């Protein structure tokens, strides 16, 4: 579904992504794990067209997305759940969800909102509440729910566990597993390698803009160097 080849991203003289390649097959959960500054956010922003790739190719369903405008990329089925959730605090839960569907021309939006509410009953209870008054975990669910409203095919999530209490982190990861069951393919960027590798099929470990390890998530989680560097064991 997605094949990234020799991707590079630079900010002036700083090269944040130094020529990396990875792929995501349809129906998979793939995770990119790495410490602060490894380049994870820059990769996702390049996939969404929010920062330019300085070289390389981003093939999505066979089409190269380098140089394609962000709204066209959303229209092609890639939905980005950004770091820090970024819901609209003064809009209601319902209006935040509707914004996730703004590119759609079909009329099944109400049905999809019900589907999101069945996945997240807590959002349903709070549908008329301003998003800024939700807890951190609820805002994260709203950000995922909003992405689902776009009817995308590939969801890319940037550090969904950030800033959440451990119990909410578990809830958010359970949600990601549920979203995959609904047919979505998922690319998950995380510093919380422990949780990410527990739900992913495959993973890539990043260090300062390069992939240093890759493989089945269960194999990566069992490797001494991954455990020592990222799993705190
Ligand atoms: P974190 O987990 O801390 O968010 P990350 O792995 O997502 O880190 P990036 O945010 O992609 O990493 O940053 C990679 C490198 O690029 C860092 O050294 C960062 O300082 C640099 N960088 C990111 N955005 C910019 C920018 N707009 N201008 C200049 N440098 C940037």
TrEMBL record:
Keywords: Amino-acid transport, ATP-binding, Nucleotide-binding, Transport. The keyword Isomerase does not apply. GO terms for molecular function: ATP binding; ATP hydrolysis activity; branched-chain amino acid transmembrane transporter activity. SMART domains: AAA. InterPro entries: AAA+_ATPase (IPR003593), ABC_branched_ATPase_LivF/BraG (IPR030660), ABC_transporter-like_ATP-bd (IPR003439), ABC_transporter-like_CS (IPR017871), BCAA_Transport_ATP-bd_LivF (IPR052156), P-loop_NTPase (IPR027417). One of its GO terms (biological process) is L-amino acid transport. Residues 2-233 form the ABC transporter domain. Pfam families: ABC_tran. The keyword Transport applies. It comes from the Bacteria. Belongs to the ABC transporter superfamily. This is ABC transporter ATP-binding protein. It comes from Aminithiophilus ramosus.
């Amino acid at each position: 579904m997605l094949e990234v080849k020799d991707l590079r991203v630079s900010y002036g003289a700083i090269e944040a992504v130094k020529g990396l390649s990875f792929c995501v097959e349809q129906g998979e959960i793939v995770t990119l794990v790495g410490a602060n500054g490894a380049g994870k956010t820059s990769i996702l922003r390049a996939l969404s067209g929010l920062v330019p790739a300085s070289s390389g190719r981003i093939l999505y369903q066979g089409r190269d997305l380098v140089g394609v405008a962000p709204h066209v990329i959303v229209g092609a089925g890639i939905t980005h759940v950004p770091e820090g959730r970024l819901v609209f605090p003064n809009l209601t839960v319902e209006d935040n969800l509707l914004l996730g569907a703004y590119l759609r021309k079909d009329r099944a939006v109400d049905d999809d909102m019900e589907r999101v509410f069945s996945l997240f009953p807590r959002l349903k209870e709070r549908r008329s509440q301003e998003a800024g008054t939700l807890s951190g975990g609820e805002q994260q669910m709203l950000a995922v729910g909003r992405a689902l409203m776009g009817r995308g095919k590939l969801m890319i999530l940037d550090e969904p566990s950030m800033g959440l209490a451990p119990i909410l982190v578990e809830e958010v990861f359970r949600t990601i597993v549920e979203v995959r069951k609904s047919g979505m393919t998922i690319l998950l960027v995380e510093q919380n390698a422990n949780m990410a590798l527990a739900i992913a099929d495959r993973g890539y470990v990043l260090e300062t803009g390069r992939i240093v390890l890759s493989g089945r998530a269960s194999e990566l989680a069992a490797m001494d160097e991954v455990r020592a560097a990222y799993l705190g064991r």
